[in-house]
Amino acid sequence: MSKNIYGVVGCGWLGLPTAKKWIQEEKTVHGTTTSKDKIESLEKVGINAHILDSEKSNEETKWLSELDYILLNIPPSSLKEEYGNFMLKIVKQLKPPAKIIFISSTSVYANNNQEVTEASELEGTRRNSAYLIDAEKMLEEFAKERLTIIRFAGLVGGDRNPAKYMTGRTISGGNDPVNLIYQDDCIGIIDHIINNSIWGEVFNGSATVHPTKKEYYTFAAKQLNIEPPTFDGENKDYKIIDGNKIAEKFGYEYKYANPFDFPD
């Protein structure tokens, strides 16, 4: 295989800048969207763009068989119960030894008021957690050592900053720790896995410093020059995501290990 043909399923907040980076590195990149309106904009940046939905036949997705690596990066929100089956359908069209990175979420862990590692039980109760857990298991069973899963914490960077959604609101759990990761580190972890051939693994992706919600969102609002949220003093269940495995065991160095260092 060429080792230079990459696929990105889901060219959004994470997939698009990842694809652009690979194109700058002279990789051939295929990317998907569910909207015909986005095809032209993807092609303008050098992506071989494809419409991908659950109704597409294998004949229409032959390009998948050409890939050396694929980044699966779409949320389960629209597919719901069919999410895992759709991910599996995509992966089954790859030709071994093509490698797979599946982007999951730390929402697969329950808020049990303790630190969680990659070995913790998957007991998340949020809306999409069950679909992600099912998809992880299905992909692991099929792809085995060709798959690595990344469970990202709360995403920050680009046009995404959770402080914007909290401005002026009253928030509970002000003393809870935040679990966040900056966009540069999301892309950095993906590249680190591919460049170092780290397969058959599961990683949490999270800044390793965890200020409280009150500390961080007050700070972030000030940085953005917006009204900070207020905190009602009510305690909520929480978790602390341990994102150290990929750093300590596999040599990744977080660019922004502390959320207070995130760029504006």
Spell out the blueprint of helices and strands.
Elements: E1 5-9, H1 15-24, E2 28-33, H2 39-44, E3 48-51, E4 69-72, H3 83-91, E5 99-105, E6 114-116, H4 129-143, E7 147-152, E8 154-156, H5 162-166, E9 170-171, E10 180-182, H6 183-195, E11 202-205, H7 213-224, E12 230-231, E13 239-241, H8 245-248
Parallel strand pairs: 1-2, 1-4, 2-3, 4-5, 5-7, 6-13, 7-11, 8-10, 9-12
Helix pairs in contact: 3-4
Descriptive report:
InterPro entries: NAD(P)-bd_dom_sf. Keywords: NAD. This is NAD(P)-dependent oxidoreductase. It comes from Brumimicrobium oceani. The longest helix is centred in the middle third of the chain and has 15 residues, at 129-143. This protein has 264 residues and is an alpha/beta fold. The protein has eight helices and 13 strands. It has a domain at 75-156 and 183-207 and 241-259: Rossmann fold (3-Layer(aba) Sandwich), CATH 3.40.50.
